[in-house]
Amino acid sequence: CVGAEDFEAQMRLLRDQGRAISLGDLREFLRGEREVPEDACLVSIDDGLRSTLEVALPILARCEVPAVAFVSSALIERTIEAAPEPYLSWRELRELADSQVVEV
Fold first, then answer.
1. Residue 22 in contact with residue 103, Cβ under 8 Å?
2. Which of 13, 22, 34, 38 has the largest count of CB atoms under 10 Å?
3. Tens place of pLDDT for every residue, the chain, 104 residues?
């Protein structure tokens, strides 16, 4: 986990250095259809928690950094005592996917 201020600073750095690539960029690179910076970075969010939508998405959009979210389908719409917050709902996942900033 990274706090919002640190996350935003990291995303600004990736943007300013031109290192952030999208999942589509990575796919094209792997097919030999595109070049990417040698130190390219694909931002991935691997928890499926609600802060992906409420905190990460606005920061990513402001910084114009694409990302991909990996979500466990077994955890969608769940609240687990050990988790710091609820997991995303199906509606929230659709909102995230519709943002065209984060691929789900």
1. yes
2. 22
3. 899 999 999 999 999 999 999 999 999 999 999 999 999 999 999 999 999 999 999 999 999 999 999 999 999 999 999 899 999 999 999 999 999 999 99
User: Which residue blocks in the chain are alpha helix, DSSP H?
Assistant: 4-17, 23-30, 51, 57-63, 90-98
Alpha-carbon distance 57 to 96, whole Å? 8
Half-sphere exposure of 31 (CA within 13 A, CB side): 8
Instruction: Give the CA angle between residues 59, 83, 79 to the nearest 5°.
Output: 100
The residue among 88, 98, 90, 97 whose CA lies nearest residue 68 is 97
> Which residue from 91, 36, 92, 46 is spatially nearest to 68, judged by alpha carbons?
46
Phi, psi of 46 (to 5 degrees): -115, 30
